[in-house]
Automatic annotation (TrEMBL):
PhnB-like domain residues: 2-130
CDD domains in alphabetical order: PhnB_like (cd06588)
Protein name: VOC family protein
SUPFAM superfamilies per the UniProt record, alphabetical: Glyoxalase/Bleomycin resistance protein/Dihydroxybiphenyl dioxygenase
Amino acid sequence: MIKPYLMFNRECDEAFKWYQKAFDGEMVAIQKYGDMPPSPDFPVAEDDKNLVLHAELKITETGYILGSDYRQDLQNDGKVCISVELNSEERAIKAWNLLKDNGTVHMDLQPTFFAKLHGSVKDKFGVTWMFTVR
């Protein structure tokens, strides 16, 4: 499944509430950075704990937007990426390896607390892809 993923600088919660109102949408999920299990590999500053780690808003019968507060400067990366949800680790790894060639890895494709594999990469054409294998 492919969904647009919107990236924000500390304004995701406000933006998604606004989009929810605009579309009479249904907030399917919203997680904050403070909801994550503590990890020395991904420390969260006290000021960042209320930022949105992941939000999902249903805006039409079959249409969704996803979003989060990005913890890096977005000036060179844009605010939209393509979220690809796959059920095959092999397909994800194949696509990942191709897209990262001459690209920039933002987060290595790796197991997380919410997915078998998850990662983000900007390809050589400047398009950012987010992979999730459930």
